[in-house]
Amino acid sequence: MISGIFFSRFLPQEGTKVVHQSPPGFLVPEPDVETTPLFSFETMREYIIPRQAFCNRYVTMICPDNKYRILGHPVCIYDEKYERNEFMFNFGIVIGVEVDKTPYEAVVRRLASTFTEMEIQNQYLSQEKTEGGRRSIAALLEIIKEDLNNYNECMIPVDDANTINMKLFPIYTTPPPIKSWHVPISKMKFASIIDDTWDLTMVRILPHIDGIKDVRRIAATSSTSLPLTKLALQHLLYYDSIILLPLFLFSAIYAPTPSLHTFITSTPMQDECANYVYINGPRLSNYYLCRLFTTLCTSRTLKEWLKLHLDQGFAVLNFVDVRRFIQFGLIKGLIYRVHKYAVSAQKLADKVSGKERLGDSLRDYADGTHCFDQITVERNMGDAKIMDALRKFPKGDVEIIYR
Amino acid sequence: MKLNPSRAHLDVKLLTSQLTNMANARDIMHPGLCAIALVIRAREGPRFVFHYPPHPDGKAVVREARFGTELDTEPISPVLEGEESDEEFGEEENIGGEVEHGTDADGTHVAPWDRLWEFPTADLESILTPSRAFHKRRFELSLDPVVFVSYPVHIREEGGWKKKRFKKSRRRKEGEREGEEAKESMGKEEEEDEGGMTMFNVVFMVNVSREEEDGRVQEVFEHVVKKFNKALNHAQASDNYVWKESEMILGMKDKAREERRPMSWLWNEILLKSTLASAIRDVFDAISNSKIATLHLATTPPVDISLQIPIPCFLTSFPSSDDRAMLGLLLTSANAMIDEEGNENPTHLNKHFALLLLNNEEKIISEIQADNTELTAPLIECIRLCKPTLSFLQVAQTQNVELSSLLILAQHLIYWRRAIAIPPLHARETYIVSPNCDSRQLPIASIAWKKAFPLAPSLPSYLASLSAAPRPYKHFSPSKNHRPTYLDMLAWAMRGGWVTPLRTYAWILVHPEIIYEVDYQLKAAAVEKARNKSKTAESDQDLLSSSTDSSTHFPKDPNSMTTSQAAEHARLARLARKTAEETAIFAAEFEKLPPPVATAHPSLNTAPHLKHLSPYVIKDPHKVSHEESLYIAAYSKRFEDVKVRETWLRFCGRYFNGREPLEMIALREGMKRKETWGLLAAFGEVILVARHW
Description:
Strand content of chain A: 15-25%
Number of strands of chain A: 15
Number of helices of chain B: 22
GO biological process, one term (chain A): positive regulation of autophagy
Pfam family, one (chain A): NPR2
Oligomer: heterodimer
Family (chain A): Belongs to the NPR2 family.
Number of helices of chain A: 15
Number of strands of chain B: 20
Radius of gyration of chain A: 31 Å
GO molecular function (chain A): GTPase activator activity
InterPro entries (chain A): NPR2-like (IPR009348)
Helix content of chain B: 40-55%
């Protein structure tokens, strides 16, 4: 929410002056307006139009009582036609300190650049007048504030040649990088929102996002290059429309996290899980889900886990879709994947002594930082094959760490 | 981040000596501090006194794009349109090293220190000396891309830098440790020249990416900016410190300007002579590297202050894939700062936890000795007494020291990053490789490990055996004689965030047999009650018929009743009949139910009448429903051993809630671990168990 918007100028005789403000009186008192200013203009004067050295850049400042923040982009135009050879102005926005300021930066920069251009074209600001089809600056400010607050965007024709088009875009945090051994799961129905204008790579890979294929396989089956596939997926991740999970394998190990407690004590969550996973047979009671989660542990592969339950007379596969079950646990943070790493003593020693040579196939991965999933995807080797290959290393050289 | 092999070789010694779990704190919490400046307003107007470093980097700190617990080094393609970069910012000063003295367009002499990035200090000094409205308030100005944050201090309106107190006792208390106030007012009386200084402002400059800006600025402000300016206010009040130092630095700058000295020479001179300048340097060096700044301001009395941006000692939940990676940080749900109500409370330290030093004991002691404060002796005592294998309570009991003071000292060590609190290490407990351990450090850590434990298996093989299958730790030790060394190894690995305790959590599990039994009893009671009720109802009816003159009751003679009374009477009679019928049906059905049979193993009872029931987990034994309390009671009747029965009732509420690990029972109940596990074995069938860190 914009609390106020203003246009201020530096006048050679009077100094920094607020020329227009909306709402009236929010920054400096106006005759016939009873609004009390949000903060003392005097204390902030120096930061609204600072010395030339600080002009022509994005400037923000918090008011002394730490309630409001001024976002501005003071501009200084040098030209002999002006008194003292310069014209200084600032279109500023005032927001509460608790408001996320990032989306407004682009707005403030756009206001500065548009009006700088208009001033250079026809002295729109310095010769301010309202006749001739031009909008007054006061009216403009009012519309910009209202439109941005109500619609998050504005499209305002200023005169015949200039239009102000602005939109507040939410700024998301940088998403984590996509790894080729990740499996994307969509959070929305892409088929229903896709149209012809979508990016071609995106159109090609979308049908393959099925929660089963890993990134590399998606690239291969859609005949798209791996880097492009990752780029497209990164976009989807940025907009939080996919989730990335590790490969699902029956030889994989999953272990509970402390969040499991939430599951055990939350009946709605158990119901949600039951709806998602009891698709292979009759619906069992929620207790079995608790039992299934609590029996996952750091040294038990899924295969062994299934065997354990079978031995106890519970044929899990007859009732539960195990892949969905694991997905549910991972997405809710109830369990985590325990990855497998190979560590070669020789490799570590080489790293320290600086004699490390790359290109020696499997040994490159044996420094404890490359999980078996990565090897599987990049070298096209299954768990058993990797273990076989590692056995060919000198005796006692390789250790397997589960982490 | 790729480890450069040749460089790694050179740095091994350095790195091994720093190898603690804080080693990569820099990656985790880079504060993005890029410079610190001291600005004052004196008689002749605002002055830009000093800044450090002399040529600050103008680039935003780029953090490693590593998330969750990932270790791999797959190259990351730069994706998504970046924000507008400020490549030119700060460039001019950074190329070519030393900047020469020069002249500007008007022909005035410009010294190399007259600019900070592209900003002339003459302009900065005016914009960074805000009006009194900002006195002791947060000052936050961003001049893209740098954020200037500070806590300006003005002279008091009535003069002086501190509120004056103890006025009467001033003379008499002279020389006593009554303190700063007295001394400060003394200084005032001597009327030292303050150069008309009316304010000073130590400004911290932060440059980080937009998405992190608010958080980082807030941290620096709360933990460093505010405290440092306050300390300087104190020093100024007591000893006119800020002005004296500023006057000296400004004098040196003027002289160097006349002599056209190079900036590097001048900065060396200033840092040698001015304790304030070197304090600013120390703050910058420490804070920008996420370390603790320990300052000593040479005032009378001296001001000692330590500043840090606190960093977490451990993670309590699994880092999700979009959390910034904090590799190497211990991952455990064992939080010592949780009070009895289950809330996180930084002033509360669980007495059943133990102290694990984050560095070599001797090294920490020598550092603490160097600090030399009144806490030094007690802290060293605390370090000597505490062992990672003993809880604070055990230490207090065996060493005969006061528990509360021990906890306070331990908290001090934890806050100042010298130690962490962990559940006491024990050979009977289970430890696994932490999912958050930083395996990138393996090459270097292996060397440090070898040095510390020359005869032990290599670090990778130690970790491999711990991670292969969780077992009580004692099984890894070849013999009983090796146990102390193995516990030392465990402490080492825990300190580095390599391993974490695997803890056991339990919930009460109610089997169908018990559910049926309780249900049956409840029904039986209901039938019994209904029977009694119908009996009493009948007798009531008799009583009612016999009573004559009660106006509230119906008259005996039906003929004398009004129609509405008659209708009501009939309705009640119908109701009574219906209830009686229902009771009869209920009782008949109940008769058909097979009576509950208590088997030795309720979990294996497959009787047909239990088929439709499924086991039930009690969510919170602290807040049980009536039925749940009956389940617990039903179980307790099954335990024949009196001791087991008592323990059951005691443990149910305290430990079978999925929150308190069973490993803590021995410590909290003051029992032997073997004994508790023996008791718990008796409950094996009736609890649902999960194991996680």
